[in-house]
């Protein structure tokens, strides 16, 4: 009888029946050289840094433009809501394009491609002479953010090994929070046009560094490029390690799958269950309200009776988010992913862990398309919330959307308990094996 959908009695589980095989895996992990893996991860997640920076760009800029002496740039409430929300439409379009580019260009080249709309978008906002330039620039930076949101977690997950995948899987969120914090800090002193100019820097650095980084070995194998995949894995793990053993495991997993996902295969629980879980995680994460809160953070503080200036309050929020996500990065490989979803707030749980789980549980043959679908659903949801947030606040008060967000958090607890798997210390091939076989031993 087929096992229930990922219901686990304990957060840990065993995949292999033989203890010696597990010991070999742990011994192999201890011999690995991680310096180059860390470098490749850093190069990639600079895209998330830019994404976090661009997402909250409106927080200090909207209040400045609402008071602008230039009539062509001065915004009313409706225009402000479009300026804040159009980023999410661009991000949704980026997620849609990732459904094609992730498998067409590969993870690394897709991340590099995102630099083009990002650079153009920042340039348009820096030199804006009218509202249309601001909106177009915001849309393009959103497109770049959506593309990187789909590609970077997959790239980082596929180049990582189980010993560090949890910590490295949190780095996209860490860097996004760093980017947001820098924006809040610069927003205290730097004019809004120069904030856009500063946003170009991490994008350019990312492009340069990624030129020297390898592509994902799993992606290369899926394209039949065995020699290039072996070379990439050797570069990432160190040539004096037993990387051939890991390469064989990845190769066996890839060979069990056809190269392209067919519509008929979507009826297979091995395919649709992890996709459904990943999409619902992204949908519910956005319904917690994080995007409209971050986009309108200073405006929210302006409407409350806080003691500190709104600009300083926003910077404090950024600092708290950073500390929280750093704690998550250092604990998720020890405590597990699922427990953090239960006991922590957004920055420690539903922020970094949902992105990591998305990249872990999606099957290789569907990973490129499905990750783009997750981002598409996520940012379309974010657009609806961000566009309507100010309108709801003006009509019913600030408390109404926050009551809604609190109710969604309760729903998330139920969803986590019923449907979310624990993937700590499992290789991507082991996780795929569970969804394919439904073996109960995986959950013990």
TrEMBL record:
<feature type="transmembrane region" description="Helical">
    <location>
        <begin position="402"/>
        <end position="420"/>
    </location>
</feature>
<dbReference type="InterPro" id="IPR005829">
    <property type="entry name" value="Sugar_transporter_CS"/>
</dbReference>
<dbReference type="InterPro" id="IPR005828">
    <property type="entry name" value="MFS_sugar_transport-like"/>
</dbReference>
<keyword id="KW-0472">Membrane</keyword>
<dbReference type="InterPro" id="IPR036259">
    <property type="entry name" value="MFS_trans_sf"/>
</dbReference>
<keyword id="KW-1133">Transmembrane helix</keyword>
<keyword id="KW-0812">Transmembrane</keyword>
<feature type="domain" description="Major facilitator superfamily (MFS) profile">
    <location>
        <begin position="40"/>
        <end position="424"/>
    </location>
</feature>
<dbReference type="InterPro" id="IPR003663">
    <property type="entry name" value="Sugar/inositol_transpt"/>
</dbReference>
<feature type="transmembrane region" description="Helical">
    <location>
        <begin position="167"/>
        <end position="186"/>
    </location>
</feature>
<keyword id="KW-0762">Sugar transport</keyword>
<dbReference type="GO" id="GO:0005886">
    <property type="term" value="C:plasma membrane"/>
</dbReference>
<feature type="transmembrane region" description="Helical">
    <location>
        <begin position="339"/>
        <end position="358"/>
    </location>
</feature>
<keyword id="KW-1003">Cell membrane</keyword>
<keyword id="KW-0813">Transport</keyword>
<dbReference type="InterPro" id="IPR020846">
    <property type="entry name" value="MFS_dom"/>
</dbReference>
<dbReference type="Pfam" id="PF00083">
    <property type="entry name" value="Sugar_tr"/>
</dbReference>
<protein>
    <submittedName>
        <fullName>Solute carrier family 2 member 6</fullName>
    </submittedName>
</protein>
<feature type="region of interest" description="Disordered">
    <location>
        <begin position="1"/>
        <end position="21"/>
    </location>
</feature>
<dbReference type="InterPro" id="IPR050549">
    <property type="entry name" value="MFS_Trehalose_Transporter"/>
</dbReference>
<feature type="transmembrane region" description="Helical">
    <location>
        <begin position="192"/>
        <end position="213"/>
    </location>
</feature>
<feature type="transmembrane region" description="Helical">
    <location>
        <begin position="131"/>
        <end position="155"/>
    </location>
</feature>
<dbReference type="GO" id="GO:0022857">
    <property type="term" value="F:transmembrane transporter activity"/>
</dbReference>
<feature type="transmembrane region" description="Helical">
    <location>
        <begin position="37"/>
        <end position="62"/>
    </location>
</feature>
<feature type="transmembrane region" description="Helical">
    <location>
        <begin position="109"/>
        <end position="125"/>
    </location>
</feature>
<feature type="transmembrane region" description="Helical">
    <location>
        <begin position="82"/>
        <end position="102"/>
    </location>
</feature>
